[in-house]
Amino acid sequence: MRRILGQRAHADSAPAAVALLRRGLALEYATLCWNVVGVVVLGIAAVTAGSLALAAFGVDSLIEIVASAVVVWQLKGEEGSARERRALRVIAIAFVLLAAYIAIQAAVSIASGTHSRGSVLGIAWLAVTLVAMLTLAAAKRDAGRQLGNVVLQTEARMTVIDGALAAAVLLGVVLNAAAGWWWADPLSAAVVLVYGLREARHAWAEAS
Prior knowledge:
Alpha-lytic protease prodomain-like, 89% helix, mainly alpha
C-alpha cells in the first residue's frame, strides 16, 4: 500500500515539476532576450555619449548571455560536463577581457581628459533593467527552490548582481549628466571591473 501511495505521489508531482522546469526555462529565455536587446541599446548609447560605464555594462550583458545559455543547457538535461567546464572557462576569460578593457579605456579617458556626455537612452535602459533583473531574480530563486535546482538558484544570485551593477552604473551616469561629475562614469565602470575579476575567479574555480 505504501509503495502504491508513493507511486501516486510521484505521479502527481511530475506535472508540477515539468511546469516548474518550463517556468525556469521561460525565465532564462526572458533574461537572454533582455540582454540581447541590452547589448544593442547600450552599444548605441555608449557610442553616442562616449560613456565607458555604458560600454562596460553592455559587455557585461554579452557575458550574461553566455551564462544564461549554460543554464538553459543544464535545465534541458543536456549531458556533457566537459562542455560545461569549457563554457565556464570561456566565461572566466571573457570577464578577464572585460576587466582589461575597462582598465585600459579608463586610463586613456583620464589621461586624455575625455569626458562622457549624458545619455537619456542609457539612463532609461539602466533604470528599466534594474527593475527587470530584480523581478527575474526573485522568480528564478522561487522556481529554483521548488525544483531543488542549485544551478538555477545560483544564476538567480547572478541576476541580482546584474541588477546591482545596473544601479551602480545608473548612479554614475546620472551624476555625470546632472552634476557634471565626469569622474563618476569611469568610477562606476570600475565597479563592473571589480565584479568581473571576482566572477572570473569564481567561474574558473567552478570549471576546475
